Every structure is written in C-alpha cells, then in structure tokens.
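**User:** Hello, beginner here. Are you able to go through the protein record under this note? It all follows right here:
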Amino acid sequence: MQTSKERNTILLFIPLILNFFVMGFVDIVGVATNYVKEDFALSDGMASLLPMMVFIWFAICSIPTGILMGKLGRKNIVLLSLFTTALAMLIPLLFYSYFGILLSFAFLGIGNTMLQVSLNPLVTSLVRKEKLTSILTMGQFIKAISSFLGPILVAFSASRLGDWRLTFLLYCIASVISIIALYSLKIKETAEPSQTSTSFRNIFSLLKDSYFVYCIVVILLIVGIDVSLNTNIPPLLVDRLSIPLAEATLGTSFYFISKTIGTFIGAFLLVKISPIKFLKASIWIAALAFITMMFSSSFWGLLISIAIVGLACANVFSIIFSLALQHDIKRANEISALMIMGISGGALITPLQGFVTDQSNFTVGLSVILLCIFIIGSIAFKFKQENLTH
C-alpha cells in the first residue's frame, strides 16, 4: 500500500516528465521547415530563416530569464514558458502563412529558452539531492523521446489525418495538460543568494578566459550541426532515394533515436574513459560518417552513416558543459547561463548552409556542416586534462 509520501513523489514526477516532454517540441522545427518550404515554394535561404527564428532567442532570452527567475520564482517562469509554447502551437492552426510560421517559431524559441533555463532549477526544489541526478537524466531521456516522436507524428498527421499541421494541435494539448499539472502543485521555493547575484557583467566576464571561448564555440557549432541535420536529413533522403517527404521525415526520427542510444552508451563509457579523449574520438568518427553520408546514394549507406553521426554527436554538448563547469566550479551559475546561450548556434549554421546551397548545390551546402565538425575536432585538441580546474 502506497504511503502519502510515495503518492506525493509520484504527483511531483508526472508534471516534471510532462515538462521535459514539452522541452523536446523545439526539435519539430527541422521537419516542419521542410513542409513549410514545400507549401510556400521557399528557397533554401528563406526556409533556413525558420530554424533561426527559434534558436536566436536562446542568445537573447537566456540571461534575462535567469535574472527574472530570481524575482518571479522558478515555477512561475516554467508556467510562463509552457503558456508561450501552447500559444506558439496555436498560431499555425489559426494563421497559416510564412509570416505566421515565423511568428509561431519565435514564440516556440522564447518558450523553450525559458523552459530550459528554469526547469532544471525547479527540479532541485522538488526532489531530494540524492535523487537529483537520476531525475535530470530521466528528464533528458524523455526529451529525447519527444524529439524523435516529432517527425513520426508529423508523418502520421500528413498521411493519415490529411494535414501535417495537426501535430501542432497535439503539441498544444500536451502543453495545456502540462500547465494544469504543474499549476496544481504546491511548491515551496527557497531563494538562493547565488541566483540573485547573477548579472550580465558576471556572465560575459567569463569570455575573458579563452577556455570558455572554446567551450561556447563548440556549443554554438554542435547545436547548429544538430539543427542543420534535423532540417536536411529529409531532403537528403528525398534527393538520393526518390521517396516522398512524409517517408523521408522518418530519417530525422532515426537520427534522434541514434542520439538517444548514444547518450545512454556515453553515460556508461564516460565513467571509465577521459571525457576529452571521448570527445576527440567521437568528433572524428562523426566527420568520417558525415563524409560518407554526403556522397552515399544507397539506402543502407545513408541510414548507417546517419546513425553513426547521431551516436558520435550525442554526448558532445554534455561533455563540453561538464568541462566548462569543472574549469571553474565556483561560477557554475554564470557558466550554465552562458552555455544555454550557446544553443543559439541553431540560428547561425542553418541559414549559412541554406545560403551556400542556394549559391551552389545541396552537397556543397552540406560541407558547411562538415566544416563545423572539423572546427570542433580542432578545438577538442586544445582541451587538456590539467586545465579543468583553477
């Protein structure tokens, strides 16, 4: 028979899982971009503005959200982020145009930025310290599930329900359920002095240290690579295999499944292997697999190379985040805000790649992603184990 304490733990767990699931909605931007491009006959350059409208807000809103969180409370910021996400999901259903999608993706980016900045601190208010790591790990796993379910839901809505945009309706309903579940919880938050001292000046002062510059560049590039792959895998499969877009979008789900498996494997390997050595090996494996993907025209060649790229890139963000924290653990709050800002890389690489594609061809455009992988590989060799702590 369940005790009152056990029931309360379950009640806390449900809204947390729902919130992490909503966090994964941002990855629908890649698949949606392909449908919007087709619906409005957009060029690659114009289509690439859609992911930019999502990820640019990580640069603009992450630090203000961290400061605002200290004034309004973590729960209120999470609720505001969920409301913003629900609003973003409604816009394409009510006002479907290129401008409407730009507006929708802007709200999605703002909501996701607030959610990523505020949800993890909220979790620390709800669970005991000894359970924090397992809950956060579970949360990232749920986010990954949400990410690879997105393309499947889009393909199902397009082929079975007759309109791919109905995916937004499902996401809107999920966001509203999350709002209700979280709002019903009574949460006692304790203010932390370290949060109130966080400021723009403190955060940007980190960039005086070249180590943090390297870290933020890698974060910018790896997120840009992730968003570009998310966007380009479907047209790549359409181009090479001559299959319908609805089927090609499942390639994005395959990529996210590979990333989920890669994260799981990495959690075990990083216990025994140096994160810097793991990073170096991962990024060069990703480079070789990506070169294969660029020029392959066979079904299995493409799927295997996509899977290897997903597996190899799965742990880069978490490794860099960890290395940055270890370099100066006393400034963990400022470092975290800076790293979340780096997610705005999704707004930089995809438009550049789209521009190159417009000026040349699809394969040459993919070389922008390959260049990003090579830059990360070169930076990885600048990290040394003895430089992790001050």
Summary: DSSP finds 19 helices and no strands in the chain. The CA atoms of residues 17 and 40 lie 36 Å apart. Residues 191-196 have pLDDT under 50 and may be disordered. The chain has two domains: 1-185, 197-390.
